[in-house]
Design a protein that fits this description.
Shape of chain A: globular
CATH class of chain A: Mainly Alpha
Order of helices and strands of chain A: HHHHEEHHHHHHHHHHH
Helix content of chain A: over 70%
Largest sheet of chain A: 2 strands, antiparallel
Largest interface: A-B, 41 and 41 residues
Strand order of the largest sheet of chain A: 1-2
Distance between the termini of chain A: 22 Å
Number of domains of chain A: 1
Number of helices of chain A: 15
Strand content of chain A: under 5%
Oligomer: homodimer
CATH superfamily of chain A: Farnesyl Diphosphate Synthase
Chain lengths: 338, 338
């Protein structure tokens, strides 16, 4: 163990997630029941819109991490299930607001909630889910867990604002980009892994180890996601190749292509990403520039590097099926790129 | 004491708030420092946008209620100050999202944040402030306080969704309308008053008394606000008479006018409120119908009635300057109408 599986030998992604799915299976059924239960409201729009998202085929990676981490840490109570459900609500709330802010029309191959119910309802139901998440966490009653997840909530929003401020700015540095995905994506992965150790009252070094695992897994996950947007298989991903391009999103493949390109390339990126002036063939040209400058490869290299840090984060824990499953998640996330 | 001051003898509104201001003065300075301190972020947009709202002349009624309630309940610790600041952040987050949902251009006589920084930043900074509020509450460390305020956060959002679902529906009943303002406005007043008793570890009956005081004060406050939108003095209010009319908002003066009117009146309300087809003179005609059917009077009667319940809520507490000041707030809210 401890070796990153080379991509050309990577197992099928679904196989890599299988050990995790087995470990969390029973608890995930309980989580799904809690999610349906806590989306209930006399206000019909709330369960309607929540079910739309909950049923739209997300992997529930974050709650699965919280469950696996709590099991790895020997937690014997019941609070981890409701905590994990609250994490999924926080994530769902973020997706709803993201779609409004990005004016997205599809997510995971389905129409976005904002397209069906409008921006107004989508913002407000997101607010409800965030409030409901905190209500559920208060029920669990662990102040350390509440601390970790309230920090995450504020940090995620901070990351989203950072991303908005960097929007259309082709001269964003890789560092600035990393700070954005650290906050908007890695913070919740990190918190999900950390709460498992916190709820089990594990010592500070184990909580820090889980935090580091989750954070670096989250960074790898987001970087692979950004690479896939220029190289993936739309049907399998449930998202279209080129979505980020059409939305003018600044991601690492673009940042590196802008830096590594010549003046004419930069003019191209400014016209398409900044001005949103996109014609037929521009996406193909963008992908061509990325190939030429190997920026998808670099993006995936970075992902592998963070994946490796995530793996080392877990190394202080004794070998167990939970540890192996959590390490497999890293491979799963990276193998998605192929 | 214990008698509602008749409106024709009402003191000047600012005089009514004076006793409360005196009681909370020192703590409010601390709260203002915390608010500025907790709005700090490396992401410039966050303090910028927060300061805009924080400096735009709100009365900070909700944090003042939390402070006064904790003092009335004999609380001697320091947690009430940070709790009250978190309440103001929650309120500010709600205002930001409200303005986006309502597409409002002015608030308290100033341009709204969404008009200056756009809807996207406004939604996300609202999310940040809500996350930050919970982070601050976790620092205070009282699970009962966290329970009260996470319930309030979910309820407020539920109320906003209910309001959205009732939008443009002229046949909304008074009951349905009350359920909306109970959730979207009264829940935070109620929570603000209740946390004072909770943080002081007062028995359940005193917490319930504070909850009832805050809830009914909030209902009265909102009803007066709704009446003022058709009868107030724009310059003094910092909002324009007719804002609700132009936005097609269903409030009690409209609900009652629709019910008490004839078919022609109902056609008028459907054309203006539902279809948004508003011409010169329509606002005056709307106000004329409200006068004819005495619906502003009824709205203020209801407000007085809730105000009276709020007063009785406080009656189980022994007489004190805090109790008197909190009762004066009721008069202040109702006297705003004249």
């Amino acid at each position: 163990m401890g070796v990153v599986v080379p991509l050309n030998e990577a197992r099928e992604p679904s196989q890599s997630l299988a050990p995790l799915l087995e470990i969390v299976d029973e608890d995930m059924n309980a989580i799904n029941r809690i999610i349906l239960d806590k989306a209930v409201s006399d206000v019909e729009l709330i369960p309607e819109l929540t079910h739309h998202l909950v049923n739209s085929g997300g992997k529930r990676l974050r709650p699965m991490l919280a469950i696996a981490s709590s099991k790895l840490c020997g937690y014997k109570g019941k609070g981890h299930v409701q905590t994990a459900a609250a994490i999924e609500f926080m994530h769902t709330a973020t997706l709803l607001h993201d779609d409004v802010v990005d004016e997205s029309n599809t997510r995971r191959g389905h129409k976005t909630a904002r397209l069906i119910w409008g921006n107004q309802a989508t913002v407000l139901v997101g607010d409800f889910l965030l409030g409901q998440a905190f209500r559920m966490l208060v029920d669990v009653g662990s102040l350390p867990v509440l601390r970790i997840l309230s920090n995450a909530a504020a940090t995620i929003a901070e990351g989203e604002v950072m991303q908005l401020a960097a929007a259309k700015n082709t001269s964003t540095t890789e560092d600035a980009y990393l700070a954005i995905i650290d906050a908007k994506t890695a913070a919740l992965f990190s918190a999900a892994a950390e709460v498992g150790a916190a709820i089990a009252n594990r010592p500070a070094d184990e909580q820090a180890a889980m935090r580091s695992y989750g954070r670096n897994l989250g960074l790898a996950f987001q970087l692979v996601d950004d690479a896939l947007d220029y190289s993936g298989d739309s049907a399998r991903l449930g998202k279209s190749v080129g979505d980020d391009f059409r939305e003018g999103k600044i991601t690492l493949p673009v940042i590196l292509s802008f830096r590594r390109g010549n003046d004419r390339d930069r003019e191209f990126w400014n016209r398409t990403i900044v001005e949103g002036n996109i014609s037929d063939g521009d996406l193909e040209h963008a992908i061509g520039l990325m190939k030429k400058h190997k920026t998808i490869e670099t993006t995936l290299d970075r992902a592998r590097s963070y994946g490796s840090i995530a793996r080392d984060g877990l190394a202080i824990f004794p070998e167990s099926s939970e540890r192996a499953a959590m390490q497999d998640v890293i491979d799963f996330c990276i193998a998605r790129a192929h």
